[in-house]
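Deliverable D4.2, example record:
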Amino acid sequence: MPRKEKNRYQKFISYFKNSVKEYNPKSAYEFLLALISSQLDADCCLLIDKYEQILYVSPTLRNTDFSHTILKNALHQKESILVQDALQDAHWQQAQSIAANIFLSVICIILKDEKNNVIGALYLDRHSPEKDAFTQIDLESIEDFINNFTSILISEGSERHKLSRLKDDLGFEGLIGNSREMLEIYRQIEKVAPTESNVLLQGETGTGKELVARAIHKRSKRADGPFIAINCSAIPKDLLESELFGHEKGAFTGALNKCLGKFELAHGGTLFMDEIGDMDISLQTKILRVLQEGEIQPIGCEKITNIDIRLITASSKNIVEEIREGNFRKELFYRINSYPIQLPPLRKRGEDIIKLSEHFLQQYSDKNYNYFPAPYFTAKARTKLLNYSWEGNVRELQNLMENLSISCEEGKLIDEDDLIFYPITKSVELPALRNLSLKEAGEQTELKLVKASLIKHRWNKAKVIQELNTTYPTLKRIMKKFGLDNLS
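Output generated by the structure prediction step:
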C-alpha cells in the first residue's frame, strides 16, 4: 500500500484499536466490516476465526452463509484465495454451494500473527449475477488494509474458540448454534450448573427454555437424579396443586388412587416449572413455603413430607411487570430468581438461523425418508430465512423445516418461493417520539403501519389498500420510499 494511502487510514486504524480496547469491540468490528463491504460492493462480509467460527458480520448485509470449501482450503494452504468465477472454475464448480449459485466470486484473506501463525480469515463474496467478479487488485488492496488489525483479532478469536469448545465439551443435547448470544448462554450454564441455586429462565415462547433447563441439570451434582418438567399454563388452575403436591386416595371427587406430585417425584433431582408466570397467586404462596421449608403436604394427607430438589423456573412473561400488576408475589420472585438467564429470540441469532434450518431439514429428511440427502437452500432462500422475524422462534423454524422435508423432492434446491411463512402479527407499537421531529415521528409510524399490514396480508397490496383506506399510488410511493418494494 502506498505511503499516502497508509496515512489516509492511520487515524481510522488508531480509532479502531482504541474502540476495541476501551469501548465496544462489537461496534468497532461491525463498522470495519461495513466499510470493507461497502468499498468492495460485497454481498457477504465476515470475520472468521481459525476454527471456522464467525466472529463478526457486516451489519449492512446480515448474510452469514459462506463457502466452507473455499475457507477450509485457504486455512489449510495458509494462503489467501481469489475465486473470480466459481461456476467456470473447475476446481470449485463441483462444490454443492457453488452449484446452487450461492457463491459466484469469493475473496478469502488469511490473517496471521507476528509469528506467521494463522489466526483467522476475512471472507467476502458476491452472489448477485449482475455484479462483476472480484479482481486481483481487490484482493491485494483489502489484504494490505486488513493486516493492520490482525493483532487485535488474536485475543478475540481465542476467547470465541474457548466458548465454542465449552459448548462441545458440555454436550448440550438439542442446543444448536455458535452465535455470540448462544455462546453466552453456554457460559452461564457452565457457571450456574454446579451450584444449588434456583434459576429463572426468561425469554419468548419457543426459545428453548426446557433444553437449557435440561442442560443445567445434566451438568449439576444432581445429574443422576430425576429431571421432572411441568408446564404450569397447560394445566387447569384447580388441578395444578394436585399435580405439584400430589394427593391421597379419596382426597377429592375423582381421586380414585393415591398420586405422587411433581415435587416428590423430583426428590434428589431437578424440578422444571415452565410458565410459572401463569400460576395463580394463591398457589404461589404454597410454592414459596416449599422453597422456604423444604417440605410439602399432599392434598388429603396430614403427614408432612421432606423434599430435596433444585428448582428451575421459566416464563415468557416479564415477571417484574407481573409483580407491578399484582399477578406475582415478589417474595417468590426473590426465591426463584437467584440466577436469571435471558434467552435470546431467534431473530437476534442471525448466525444460527441457517445452521438450525439445515439441521432440522436433515433431521426430518432422515426421519421421513430413510436418510435421503436433505434439499439445499439457494442464496435467495437463505436471505429470506435471515430477514424473517421468527415470532415463534426455534419452534416456528422447526415446523417450517418439517413441512419442507415433506413438500420438497430429494435433492431439490429450496428457493424463496418454497418458504411459506405464517406470521402472527402483533399490534403495531408507535415509536418512541422523544427527540424526534414531527416529520420523523410521522415517517416512523407510517413505516410500521404499512410494513405490519404487508406482512399480515402476505404482500397482497389490494388487501393492504383496503385495510389502510389508501390508494395504490400512495401505497406504491410509501413502499418505494422505505425500500419495501424490494422485499415483495
